[in-house]
Design goal:
rod-shaped, 16% strand, 135 residues
Length: 135
Amino acid sequence: MKVVSKEDIRVATLSGGVFVLTANEAVECADEIGLIAMQMGAKLVSESKTNEVVEEQPVEESAEGRGTYYGEDIPPEENTPSAELVSVMEALIEGGDPVNFKTDGSPKANVVNKAIGRTVSTSEREAAWEEALNS
């Protein structure tokens, strides 16, 4: 992998290795080092004769709100909570028993699971909690 940076970058790995990337100097390096350098602002250099810098394509928001990456649509998550789960959350809010809530104010998973009679995934529980708070 060949990378270049507009400024000096020092890449240190967990294994103790250090790689210094000098400003405006394209350098061949290991993929792991190159990826870390790119996270720090370096750009990937193409392997063509001109050594042009490859610009990264930004993530764009799509209508579903999840975005696209390199031209591919990312499907929306299926986190639409059931009406029954939202009503359980609303009942917990109305009850207001502090034993049922974590320190951040969200309901405890075991309380929600027991109230609805099944195991609820984290994403479904959080979506239902948000819906109950916003209703």
